[in-house]
Specification:
Layout (H helix, E strand, L loop, with lengths): L1 E9 L6 E4 L1 H11 L4 E7 L4 E6 L3 H14 L18 H10 L2 E7 L2 E2 L6 E6 L6 E9 L1
Antiparallel strand pairs: 1-8, 2-7, 3-5, 3-8, 4-7, 5-6
């Protein structure tokens, strides 16, 4: 069995953003030399997400609007969590909806996606460095 553990550091310039990290993950699969196995991609911060979906600008904009409707950032005093001095309760809720990690099969040395699937990092409380764990195992 072969394994590879890598960390990708992202720092978005805005509070919220979606970053396509598919090519980064593909490069790590190649580096791992795993032909048959699994690839875990995990956001290591509780105000960030990793998810799979279509890389279409309108859809990503729809996610932004939908999430802001579910858990609006302002007014910040609407959330008990923010009474601790934080202002990011909405980011915790958005992460809960969008998910923590994805696992993708590796077949013949490639990520085994369905049509249009790509991997995204979702940032909901940005402007500082955050890490994504990539763990690849297989043969």
């Amino acid at each position: 069995m072969q394994t590879l553990t890598e960390y990708i550091t992202l720092e978005v310039k805005t509070r919220r953003a979606f970053v396509n990290i598919t090519n980064d993950i593909r490069n790590l699969v190649t580096k791992s030399k795993v032909k048959e196995g699994l690839c875990l991609v995990n956001a290591m911060h509780i105000t960030a997400s990793v998810f799979i979906n279509d890389n279409e600008g309108g859809l990503l904009h729809d996610f932004e609007k939908w999430l802001e409707g579910l858990a609006p950032h302002k007014p910040t005093d609407q959330y008990d969590h923010n009474k601790t001095g934080e202002d990011n309760a909405d980011a915790h809720l958005k992460r809960q909806v969008m998910g923590r990690e994805v696992v993708v099969a590796i077949t013949n040395g490639e990520l085994d996606f369905g049509p249009w699937e790509e991997i995204f990092y979702g940032e909901f409380d940005g402007k500082r460095p955050k890490r994504v764990l990539v763990k690849i195992i297989g043969e």
